[in-house]
Amino acid sequence: MIMIENNKLTEGNIFKKLIILALPIMGTSFVQMAYNMIDMIWIGRIGSKAVAAVGTAGFFTWLAMAFILIPKIGAEIFISQSVGKKDIDSAKSYARHAIQLNIFLALVYGILLILFRKQLIGFFNLGNSEVINMAISYLVIVSIGMNFYFINPIFTAIYNGYGNSKTPFMINTVGLVVNMIFDPVLIFGMGPFPALGVKGAAIATVGAQLIVTLIFIVSVKRKMVLFEGFDLFQLPDMKKIKSIMKLGLPVAFNSGLFSIFAMFIARIIAQWGPIPIAVQKVGSQIEAISWMTANGFSTAIGTFVGQNYGAKKWDRIYKGYFISLGIVSVIGIGATALLVFGAKPIFSIFIPEKEAIKYGVVYLRILGLSQLFMCLEITTSGAFNGLGKTIPPSIVSILFTGLRVPAAMILSSSNLLGLEGVWWAISISSIVKGIILVGWFTILMRRMKKSLHLKSY
User: Fold this and answer.
1) What is the spatial distance between Cα 203 and Cα 426, in angstroms, rounded to a whole number?
2) Of 67, 189, 361, 425, which one has the fewest beta carbons inside 10 Å?
């Protein structure tokens, strides 16, 4: 089996290499986002209570990403750096250890969600028994399929770290198509299938994720060099596990706290009733258009930096980073224009209720102002990760995301901005994070160039 040509990011035109790598990753990110967006579109036809239920339970699938990121980040960084060093045996070892760690974490997390389902949903003080029961049902079903939800991002990360982002994009797209078919059939009932409502949305998602996992398994067995001689039951090397966790934990901790802070924000929002909860859930999905795009470039620049770091091509890292910033800046500005000027028609697609649309337009316009800075922050985090420096972006994110909670409480008080104060707290923190992180990485790279007396390519 031969190396895939696309994985050589240490040579050739930087812009072209980044685009070729980033586009499928962006596509994969959009596919993952589309799962939730499609659910929201169909669930929105049931009503805002159903959206609030799915949105509330969805916080725990969001929180799951914190655990997924532990092996995911380690896999992407170590595999990309190993490929840059042309050490395929090491890349194979890290791929196996990442999967073993991922499966263990998925089992533990899924079991805990099922055991404490009532207490977890009860945290949000929803105050509506119908919404609470729907949320619990949704949570239990997705928890049963948690292993599939966990493993697919790891397969994707292994391919991305190797430099092949096209294959996971194609496989995840199949899952999206399956979900698009399952959703209306199971939510509203078609043919022999009864109308299952919120439960149907959960089953559709789990079913689609299962199919993606099966396709990944077939794919890696047939044509992925990193899985030659793969043995899942081989005893793990704890040094490898610790190395993966050392890189992944800061990012995972950041993601976990991000989710927890968002839960506290949701609890603040809940005092205005189920409609604002639904609006925040749908609005965040719409806003995720730019978030997912930037996340694609974040993964791409992380892989690019990782391979060139392994090959010790420092000037190439510097140039690649600023090329990526230029691209995502255009995307961020475009997202701002879209959310600010197209808020009403965009939000109307998801929830047709007039009151929800009124709240949704305000949300999108306020959050739209921070899109450029959010894109810059996410992309820069990927560049830090590629160097194996996962702590700086985690510090910035944890600090200023955490400040959203007290800021939201203060700004949303009756004497100030009300519900809009919550949206402003989120938007302002994103702007600050983007500015600080770009400045930090720029200073770091200039110091590295100066200390190593680098030559330009």
Assistant:
1) 32
2) 189
Other beta carbons less than 10 A from residue 439's beta carbon: 11
Query: How far apart are the C-alpha atoms of 405 and 383, rounded to whole Å?
Result: 28
Can you tell me the distance from the alpha carbon of 301 to that of 295, in angstroms, rounded to the nearest whole number?
A: 10
C-alpha 283/C-alpha 361 separation (Å) is: 9
Supply angle C-alpha 155, 28, 68, rounded to 5. 45
187 or 2: which carries more pLDDT confidence?
187
Structure tokens at 5: 């040509």
Contact 128, 275 (CB under 8 A): no
Q: What pLDDT shows up at residue 199?
A: 92
Q: Tell me the three state secondary structure of residue 57.
A: helix
- Taking 70 as the threshold, does the pLDDT of residue 29 lie above it? yes
8 Å CB contact between 188 and 126: no
What is the torsion angle, in degrees rounded to the nearest 10, for the CA atoms of residue 382, residue 387, residue 390 and residue 393? -50
> Domain extents for the chain?
12-452
Helices (H), 311-416: 314-341, 343-348, 354-368, 371-386, 391-402, 404-411
Q: H-helix or E-strand containing 303?
A: helix 274-310
Tens-place pLDDT, residues 163-197: 888 899 899 899 988 988 998 899 898 878 888 98
**Residue 100: strand, helix, or coil:** helix
How many Cβ atoms are within 10 Å of 438's Cβ, its own excluded? 18
d(CA 120, CA 56): 10
Query: Rounded mean pLDDT of the chain?
Result: 85
Q: Per the structure block, which two tokens stand in for 49?
A: 């209570």
Which residue matches tokens 């292993």?
Answer: 147
14-44 b/e with 16+ CB inside 10 Å = b?
Answer: beebbbbbbbbbbbbbbbbbbbbbbbbbbbb
Tokens 């939201």, located at residue: 408
DSSP letter string, 136-176: HHHHHHHHHTHHHHHHHHHHHHHHHHHT--HHHHHHHHHHH
Give me the pLDDT at residue 4, please: 40
> Is residue 192 packed enough to be buried (19+ CB in 10 Å), middle (13-18) or exposed (0-12)?
exposed
Taking alpha carbons only, the member of 113, 121, 102 closest to residue 53 is 121
CB 336 within 8 A of CB 371: yes
